[in-house]
Specification:
This protein is of the alpha/beta class. Helix content is 16%, strand content 25%. It folds into four domains: 196 residues, Molybdenum Cofactor Biosythetic Enzyme, Chain A; 41 residues, no CATH class; 91 residues, Molybdopterin biosynthesis moeA protein, domain 3, CATH 2.170.190; 87 residues, Beta-clip (Beta Barrel). Helix 2 runs parallel beside helix 7 and helix 5 packs across helix 6. The structure holds ligand LQZAQKY5 and molybdate ion (MOO). Ligand LQZAQKY5 binds next to strand 15 and helix 7. InterPro entries: MoaB/Mog-like_dom_sf, MoaB/Mog_dom, MoeA-like, MoeA_C_domain_IV, MoeA_C_domain_IV_sf, MoeA_linker/N, MoeA_linker/N_sf.
Length: 482
């Protein structure tokens, strides 16, 4: 599957810019039209004379089947070395070791309610009060009660808590202490609280050393809170991979409306937050001019865990990604994928071991590359589990591609959200099935569909249409939590 760089095959490094060198054509760099069916390759161009200016070669011969490409991407890296971070810095990363309790939870027998700690059956004589954060070493004698706040440690000897709304205090004249009685109208038990009532016993949630969260758990806000409650100040996590993002294209503008044959850079704004949602920490997005040397220096000089490039993956005169990778002696693990949009996407391993994903420049094609190659690889690097496949039924017919998987932006609906769809059986809807409605504007160069999509539907290749009702895999657009 891997294809080693030409320089490696020839056993030498190749000086000079990629654009100025001849590419041997004996191996037959065949041109495969973007939409030519697989297996109908046109013959390769005639061999060039050594030293003559050459077009970069273009390799995706139909590409790897989409499911295989995802598998290759998942296996194209290794979990990064764990680090120990202060609690708050660990958010969004994955536990590299189980989270264990540094103490019992609760750490002491605790009042679960505002009211009175009581000892034995009532009525009780009343004395003192205990607030949260206070501890009394003095035991509560049988027949006595003390005011207590939620979260306060129970005094030794207390057998239950009577809630504030379940008791009333009687002051008898001439007596130094007041009396506490059960207020029958409110008490759950007119005889008074049963032993243990409204007490959270020490260790109810965990004992010191108990495993609270397994290694591999994604640290969310609740996990941070749990770690703090259990007495931890640091967590050992797999760091989120750092990515360098290189956006290629001299035609790209950074502000204002598209003009003079130029277009706005849509991927510079799109990629960093999407990468973050995948657990990747993007460095600054660098816009590179369409020049092979610049790209080679940027890629060769990167120290990131992952490199993502956009554009320059196809067959145009300034599409340098493949030739530069070849020149850097990278191994191509995925050289095009049988998927639409996005078929020129690629995945390479640099001699340093660093993975590089080349996303096509067409914006939706780039998103498809992100979901196909970056997402599984990023999860592996970050130690995140790959999610179980999700499915939905198509709410409309979708034309399948003869040889390539199609990724189609869809909105997801409950059957009852689809008033115009009458012929789905209630049975299908009752099972909680999601229905996927294909969105317009799902062309490779368009973002209008994906920008309001809930997911991408995966339509496998075939001769016929994937008809409505068909169950298909869906890739949720996991950017909702940003
Ligand atoms: N002869 C062939 N030509 C093309 C093929 C093919 O198989 N044979 N595949 C087509 C397909 S499919 C795609 S997808 C594109 C991929 O092209 P590149 O990765 O080389 O990307 P560019 O040529 O640089 O750009 C393509 C297109 O996208 C626009 N673009 C690029 N970057 C951005 C950006 N950051 N924001 C917005 N738009 C961007 C660029 O202006 C071009 O219009 O190749 C086809 N050609
Ligand atoms: O079909 Mo391309 O891969 O436009 O996206």
């Amino acid at each position: 599957m891997g294809r080693r760089g030409r320089a490696a095959r020839e056993g030498r490094r190749r000086p000079g810019p990629v654009t100025a060198r001849a590419h041997p054509t004996t191996a037959g760099p065949r041109e495969t039209g973007a939409h030519a069916p697989r297996g109908e390759h046109t013959p390769g161009p005639p061999a060039r004379r050594p030293g003559s200016p050459a077009e970069p070669p273009y390799h995706p011969h139909g590409g790897l089947p989409w499911p295989d490409a995802r598998r290759v991407a998942q296996g194209a890296g290794r979990r990064l070395t764990p680090i120990t971070l202060p609690l708050r810095a660990a958010i969004g990363q994955v536990l590299a070791a189980p989270l264990t309790a540094a103490g019992d939870l609760p750490p002491f027998d605790t009042s679960a309610m505002d009211g009175w700690a009581v000892a034995g059956p009532g009525p009780w004589r009343l004395s003192g009060q205990l607030l949260a954060g206070q501890r009394s070493a003095e035991p509560l004698a049988e027949g006595w009660a003390t005011r207590i706040a939620t979260g306060a440690a129970l005094p030794p000897g207390a057998t239950a808590v009577l809630r504030r709304e379940g008791g009333h205090v009687e002051h008898r004249s001439g007596q130094p202490t007041a009396w506490l009685h059960v207020l029958t109208a409110h008490a759950t038990d007119p005889a008074g609280p049963a032993p243990g009532q409204d007490i959270r016993p020490r260790g109810q949630e965990c004992r010191v050393g108990d495993e609270l969260l397994a290694a591999g758990t994604l640290v969310g806000p609740a996990a941070l809170g749990l770690a703090a409650a259990a007495g931890r100040d640091e967590l050992t996590v797999v760091p989120g991979p750092r990515a360098d993002v290189f956006v290629l294209g001299d035609e790209l503008l950074d502000a204002g409306p598209p003009r003079d044959g130029r277009v706005r850079d849509a991927l510079g704004p799109l990629l960093p937050p999407w990468l973050r949602a995948l657990g990747v920490e993007p460095g600054e997005v660098r816009r590179l001019e369409d020049d092979a040397d610049t790209l080679r220096q940027a890629v060769g000089g990167s120290t990131a865990d992952l490199i993502v490039t956009t554009g320059g993956t196809a067959a145009g005169p300034v599409d340098f990604v493949r030739p530069v990778l070849d020149d850097l002696d990278a191994e191509l693990l995925v050289d095009g994928v049988a998927v639409r949009p996005g078929h020129p996407m690629l995945l390479a391993r640099l001699p340093s071991g660093r993975p590089l994903v080349g996303l096509p420049g067409n914006p939706l094609a780039a998103v498809c590359g992100l979901l196909t190659l970056v997402a599984p690889l990023a999860r592996t690097l970050a130690g995140r589990p790959q999610p179980a496949p999700r499915h939905a039924r198509l709410a409309e017919d979708v034309r399948a591609h003869a040889t390539d998987t199609r990724l189609v932006p869809v909105s997801l609906h409950d059957l009852h959200d689809l008033p115009d769809v009458h012929d789905f059986s209630e049975k299908e809807g009752e099972r909680g099935t999601a229905f996927a409605r294909p969105l317009r504007f799902g062309g490779p160069a368009m973002l209008r569909g994906i920008a309001c999509a809930d997911a991408m539907a995966v339509v496998p290749p075939g001769d016929s249409a994937a008809t409505r009702h068909t169950q298909v895999e869906i890739l949720p657009i996991a950017t909702g939590a940003l």
